[in-house]
Amino acid sequence: MTTHSVPSVRRAGERPAGRPPLPRGAGINMLKLDLEVTRDELAATLDDLFATFNLRVQIRSHPAFFTGVFIVLTGAAAGAAALLLRRRGRAG
Length: 92
Prior knowledge:
- By secondary structure, the protein is an all-alpha fold.
- It is 67% helix and 0% strand.
- 0% of the residues are buried.
């Protein structure tokens, strides 16, 4: 995740907070630079979004939580297997 926050756009057509409007008569170089900044902000936002839903990243970020989930799931599977084996032992 990035360390800076990307400002949000309030209304369609407005620039994000913290970014000054382009000066009148801005040349093509200024427009290209603004486009690069916008592209970088979008890339950072998408990186953060994909990291949020990436299971590998979440496991690396919260190992204790996922260890607990793994132990609970393993215990539930072992308990279900024990119940099934107990029922088969009584029926036979």
